Amino acid sequence: MSALTGPAAGESTHGGETRLYLLQGVPAVGKLTLARELERRTGAIVVDNHLVNNAVFVPMGMDRDVGVTLEQTDALRARVMDVVLEATLAAPAMLSHVFTIWVTDAPENAAHVERLRVLADRRGARFVPVWLSASPQALLARVDAPGRAERSKLVDPAVLRGLLERPELPAPPDALRLDLTETAPAQAVDRILDALG
Questions:
Q1: Which CATH number does the domain housing residue 126 bear?
Q2: Which domain holds residue 55?
Q3: For the chain: N or C, fewer Cβ within 10 A?
């Protein structure tokens, strides 16, 4: 196993158990950074929410002032998500995955989390929901960090302030909750893996 690439195909660092990690948290909380650390440590494939969103956001010009609203992208993003979940179901059984999302408290979002839980079950994988948080000050300090715009991520502190006023989907009873205000990605992954035994 290489320290840079993680386990080789078919190799596991967690006793052979296949997992589907779900990292849920607001923009700038550190979902992708944490997902990449999980990938490095366990070999799990990262399925970042921008894999789905950017397939729609980029061609529709969401990063430009052309008047496209988020709601106008919903149906197309749902179709992309269907394909991504179908591909995940078809993946070799030994592969683990890390999904990242941010969802508000709405029935359709609860249904999406349940859909991922069912997907894990169908793959024979352990579902690992992780609800991430950080202080508003930390989030606002991170939101315009270099590199975020390159992935069509939110970089406007004013928009983030508005999003922080929206209630997040409550964590399921089996979720691990992590505050990333001052916790480094490596420490956060230590906590996730330690909690799984």
A1: 3.40.50.300
A2: 19-196
A3: C
Residues 6 or more apart whose Cβ sits within 8 Å of residue 84: 47, 51, 52
Q: Which three-class secondary structure state does DSSP give residue 136?
A: helix
Distance CA 155, CA 145 (A): 8
d(CA 124, CA 115): 14
Place of tokens 């709601």: 71
In a domain, residue 87? The reply is yes
Is 77 inside a domain boundary?
Answer: yes
User: Hey, what's the torsion of the CAs at 106, 97, 182, 109, to 10 degrees?
Assistant: 0
Does residue 11 form part of some domain?
Answer: no
Residue type, 72: Q
Task: Give the C-alpha distances (Å, rounded to integers) separating 83 from 80, 126, 158, 182.
Answer: 5, 21, 33, 36
Is 165 within a domain?
yes
For residues 72 and 7, give the distance between their C-alpha atoms in angstroms, rounded to a whole number.
40
Write out the two tokens for 67. Answer: 């008047």
Per-residue pLDDT tens over the stretch 107-122: 999 999 999 999 999 9
Number of domains making up the chain: 1
Query: Cβ contacts of residue 196 below 8 Å, gap of 6+?
Result: 14, 19, 126, 128
